[in-house]
Write a structure and sequence with these properties.
Elements lengths: L6 H7 L2 H9 L10 E5 L5 H8 L3 E6 L2 H10 L4 E4 L11 E7 L10 H11 E12 L5 H13 L13 H10 L3 E13 L5 H9 L9 H19 E2 L4 E14 L3
Parallel strand pairs: 1-2, 1-4, 2-3, 4-5
Antiparallel strand pairs: 5-8, 6-8, 7-8
Helix pairs in contact: 6-9, 8-9
């Protein structure tokens, strides 16, 4: 999936993406880990957190805008442009870490991504990640699909949200041993009075590519208004997204 990013808006309005990712770092078994890749590093916040843990880390991302921000923020870290489903390292590493990235990769390219990761790890290396899991933002996507249909458009689901069983099977076929996997609900607070509207504008762009400006705004407003009873907390005045996360630690045994 090709997604254009506004790195400034991403950093200022959607910091929860990497803030929640800090917890995923605790899944790393640090013994014997010296070298690491942050796959889909974005603006580099978690790459820096990996460096602070003592790892010799390099960030990879497909967005030049995100990489420019990362290089400006952390000039002492090596950041490179790479496609997560088509990359090769000159030397294998001990750890490949990824947060909130893998669900952006089309289902048809997941096996290619896993092969790249497997080949990039040394024997005993770890693949630690969190991604959107089965049912993630179901209410949002179902409502968008409904409103697209009302306005005469077809809604294409822009993400891949697998179950534990489905994704563990893919990992095992790629050669990994899955040591830990959990699927859990994580209602996620969105920032500002227009939190849900802004979230859709930031993350759900591909389905709107063929929608005219007027219909786009109508679909957005109608979807947000319809979801208010389910995703807006009137007591706190905050919007929440119905996130479901899949968190995994897999190992290349040999």
């Amino acid at each position: 999936m090709n997604q254009n990013w506004n790195s400034k808006k991403y950093s200022e309005g959607f910091s929860f993406v990497y803030e929640y990712g800090s917890d995923v770092l605790n899944l790393i078994q640090p013994e014997g880990v010296f070298s690491a890749i942050d796959l889909g590093c974005g603006t580099g916040t978690l790459t820096k957190a990996l460096k602070d843990k003592g790892f010799n880390v390099r960030g990879l991302d497909a967005s030049e805008e995100m990489l420019a921000k990362a290089r400006a923020n952390y000039p002492d870290i090596n950041f490179s442009h790479a496609d997560a489903a088509n990359f090769v390292l000159s030397e294998p590493v001990d750890l490949i870490f990824s947060n909130a990235v893998l669900h952006w990769i089309d289902k048809s390219r997941q096996s290619s991504m896993m092969k790249c990761v497997y080949d990039a790890l040394r024997a005993g290396g770890q693949f630690v990640f969190e991604m959107g899991g089965f049912g993630c933002c179901r209410l949002i996507h179902e409502k968008l699909a409904e409103r697209f249909n009302v306005h005469g458009y077809s809604y294409t689901m822009p993400f891949y949200f697998p179950s534990i069983g489905e994704y563990s099977s893919l990992l095992e076929k790629a050669g990994f041993t899955v040591r830990y996997a959990i699927l859990f609900d994580r209602p996620t607070q969105l920032k500002g009075d227009n939190g849900l509207y802004d979230w859709i504008n930031m993350f759900v762009t591909i389905p709107f590519s063929g929608v005219n400006k007027s219909d786009r705004e109508s679909i957005l407003r109608e979807s947000v208004d319809s979801l208010r009873d389910k995703l807006f907390d009137h007591e706190s005045g905050l919007w929440f997204a119905d996130y479901v996360r899949l968190r995994v630690r897999a190992v290349k045994e040999h």
